Automatic annotation (TrEMBL):
This is Uncharacterized membrane protein YuzA (DUF378 family). Keywords: Membrane, Transmembrane, Transmembrane helix. It comes from Nocardiopsis sinuspersici. The chain crosses the membrane at residues 59-77, 98-121, 133-153, 160-179, 207-227, 234-253.
Amino acid sequence: MSPSTARLRASPLFWPLPPALVLAPAGLILAMTFAGTWDRLDWRALDWVYLSAQVGAQARLPVVVAAGAAALVAGRFTRRSLVFAQPWQPRAERDVPLRHAVVVVAWCLGAYLVGLLPLTVVTATRGAGSPDAVAVAGALTGFAALTLLGYLCGVAARGLLAVPVAVGTVFLLTSLVFVSDPWTALSLQPPFEPFLGMREAAALGPYRLGFFLLLTVAVAWTTAWLLRAPRRFSAVHGAAVAAVAVTVVLPHLHPFPLVVRAPGAAVCDEHGGVRYCVHEGHAEELTAITGLAAPVFDAYGVADALPREVRDQSLARGDEQAFDGPGQDVLWLPVYPGWDPYEEVPETMADWLIPDVGRCGSGSVASLDRGARPQERRAAVVYGLRAWLASQAFGGGASGHALFADADPDQVSAWIRQDRERLASCEVDPEELPWRT
């Protein structure tokens, strides 16, 4: 062994573990985190609420790697076959498991945090809102707790068998949130991606943080108990394990609300009789929304069919308010991290204006084939109008639908005004379009 290698192995950054045993999983975690977040660095509408939730969401697979690494360390360095670990002796000195755990958790969690750094910097530069410190603390505590759970698997199992046991156990625990909502209080992440205008319910974050702290204590105590010789029952240890079990059961008996609405101040503009309002954190999106929506509304040409207001869903005070939007002449537009206004705004505005294709009786099937049913041909008119309206956001040109390929905007607007009632009930056949006769 070269002197430099010997110094590296004796470094307090790794001791008492071989450097490769922590550098390999740390490097893999760093690469996974970069890969999971790199494409989001140029996303629109990034905010701190989203980033706070991503601290837990992006950890789902890295923590599995960390747990596997911890299990490998425990399985290799605390196994029963070690020459100094006779049946009547402790399998390791009391502070050795602590040093193992500190080194593995520090390197794996540190690599994960470094991987999140670019997204954090971008969010801090142009993101809105404020970080959810409790959600972030709960996710990072959960990362450490589940890594320690992997170490416990390595102590309890024999040799390399501990690695797949730990990987499978931790992967299962991080995936249960997608099976049932009550697991959200016991998981690293919510089952969806919250963003500006909402936040985790008040009790959810502290409960998750408390659960992972309790799990850390119980796992550490159980690990020490398994390595002890002779093993003695401890009432405090039993109480800690029982408390973890109770904490797991409680959210299933009384589920927590997951999120609550947290609308902020609105920034508004008006164009063509329609008022456009977005959350103050989305103020940079207002120009794009107005510029893309107004041509669609102008092309339709019927003022009383337009919404009174187009509002950012981040301003909604509840789900019911957003669902009741059409009844209040309000079009609620979802603005979220990574959204593409050039695709979503024209299509959403066109969807507001065209009739429900379900009225055509075609089962949402549209076709212009020779053997198509009349209902399917009429549905094709509705879909064609939708595509044509959306294309007006970009100055017209190719509408994306053969029925409206040669249509003049003034001619389409006049046809809409003339046949509006028949169009609303899906009674217009393709042969009746003025520019095709």
